Amino acid sequence: MDRSPGGTSAPVEVRIRMTVWQRVTPFLPTVVMTAALFTTSRAEMSPPGGLTGLVTFWIVLLALAAVLPAYFGVTLTPSAAVVRNVRRRTIPWADIQAVRTESVLGVRSVVLYEADGRRTHLRAPTTGYLAWDRRFEEKFHTIGTWWQTHRGPDWTPIPPPPAWWNTPTGTSSSTARPT
């Protein structure tokens, strides 16, 4: 989490990004598989550029993996949340109806619920088994605090998401009996 310059007073904007480990982790299986293939293969052909070329290739790939996704995340400004995924999107605080966490396949992420029904999953902060973020809760509460501070008077709460055990049951054709 990066804070803009401003001393100890309230920051002008807060930038939340993916951790370095979260940026590099998706590429590690490929590195391990390549190393295993070249160390166990009995082929007489060496890779193009030899072993040094292969090592250089993976070092460059890991450096790019660490730098390029650094763009992903969210910047909190007094007027809006600027979401940086593949494309940049600015969501005014007045349009956000809730800030919640959701878990998909063991990966928890922050979701912004908008007034028009759209849900925006943030690429950072996230936390999961191999890409753990120790400060996930702190970052989630920072986003929630910024939203509560700047959301404005037009905010109305949205109902909690339904779960399978508390959803209302309606009459369906399979439960109706003919007379």
Task: Report a brief summary of the structure.
This protein is of the alpha+beta class and 179 residues long.
Strand order of the largest sheet: 1-2-3-4-5
Radius of gyration: 23 Å
H/E series, N to C? Answer: EEHHHEEEEEEH
User: What's the tally of helices?
Assistant: 4
Helical residue percent? 25-40%
Q: What's the total count of β strands?
A: 8
- Category from helices, strands and their pairing: alpha+beta
- Termini Cα gap: 65 Å
**Mean pLDDT metric:** 74
Largest sheet: 5 strands, antiparallel
Relative strand content: 25-35%
Q: What general form does the structure show?
A: elongated
Residue windows where pLDDT falls under 50 for at least 5 positions: 170-179
Folded structure, characterized:
There is one protein chain. The protein has 179 residues and is an alpha+beta fold. The protein has helices at 20-24, 28-40, 50-67, 136-150, and strands spanning 2-3, 14-17, 73-76, 80-84, 88-92, 96-104, 107-114, 119-127. It is elongated, with a radius of gyration of 23 Å.
Features:
26% strand; 179 residues; five-stranded antiparallel beta sheet
